[in-house]
């Protein structure tokens, strides 16, 4: 579990995050949503330890990141997996080398053991016969799946995803969402997803954190969201005509 | 004020580069790859330029020596001094600022744009060490490039001088050996060592702290070339003043 206590983050005089208190639960898909400029990416980068909070603490299973020495912070980082918006695969490496990278860096496994694990995770994300290809030779959806494989290869306790289905067609986007949710359940990890995609919210949003102007404006699940009376939230989530109809149906209990 | 900030940031980056080291087995492979990318792949252009510039220096010297009292061997002497003292260490380094420097800036800058540096950091890897340290070690082989440049430059001078009929072969060889001061070679290689560090680190700084998208990668490469050249020229002046005055 990740516990966020009174998190503030400023750049110069501009305050981006204004005292966020929330939790991200183990074994659940936790979503951060909000309009552009709401502070989602800054929040995610604080969770990842890429940005140091101006004030407040972030606890990972009860351990505050800021209270750890550099060595322990590194150990904690090795328990994190990250799926970047663009995949962030290393262009000069093959798919197998990309997925193997965390194992090469942090384990003393033999190459054959690492290859077995690579094959296992690539199979898990439904990718076969791509080991020797380069990232530029596969589609965007496949790159996302490779990125997920790389994030989970070292059996992380925390999985972070930044817009995991941006730029994907709706069918592939749902596949990626479901894959992330399945992996979360199978491995009982704490997954935090930063998303704009309302399909994802209504599909896999077990714990949703809605940010507005750097504040936590709403927190709940996909089953609670349609009952919310927060106008900015409902306007944001049910912005399209289709989603407005979905909400009406949800309110009618259909 | 911005320059002070940049200089400070450059030294912070250097501290980070020599901070927590990447696993040796991984680093070894990266160093060999960088030696191939930065050193071996530069040899062709260095040999080509050195040979012809050596020839041009010889022709220009020969055409300007009209006085019959001045021995023809001075042509070789002048070519040797020009090539060893300035052309090979400095002129080739400025060319390398364009070739190697832009390679370093664009490769690291692209990794920044594509969030690959963030990916390394999230994994708990010292990205500065992983990306820049192998380039610095590879550039320590740069003096070998300059040694080859000197040899080929003098060969080009010989070819232009002797085959062009400006000086006899024996006279050229005599001039080449006249008043040879071995410290001049030491001076050239000391300069080359400092230039290698400049060539590896300044472009790396411009790539590592790059902000923006693909367009900015191009701008960063240009800025890196300009600043690397400026620092090379200043370092050249300072080192010459310190070592030769």
From TrEMBL, chain A:
Domain of life the protein comes from: Bacteria
Name this protein carries in UniProt: Phosphonate ABC transporter ATP-binding protein
Entry-linked PANTHER family: INTERMEMBRANE PHOSPHOLIPID TRANSPORT SYSTEM ATP-BINDING PROTEIN MLAF, PROTEIN TRIGALACTOSYLDIACYLGLYCEROL 3, CHLOROPLASTIC
InterPro entries in UniProt: AAA+_ATPase, ABC_transporter-like_ATP-bd, ABC_transporter-like_CS, P-loop_NTPase
Alphabetical UniProt keywords: ATP-binding, Nucleotide-binding, Transport
Phylogenetic classification of the source organism: Bacteria, Pseudomonadati, Bacteroidota, Flavobacteriia, Flavobacteriales
Acyltransferase found in the keyword field: no
GO molecular function list: ATP binding
Pfam family, one: ABC_tran
Segments forming domain ABC transporter: 2-238
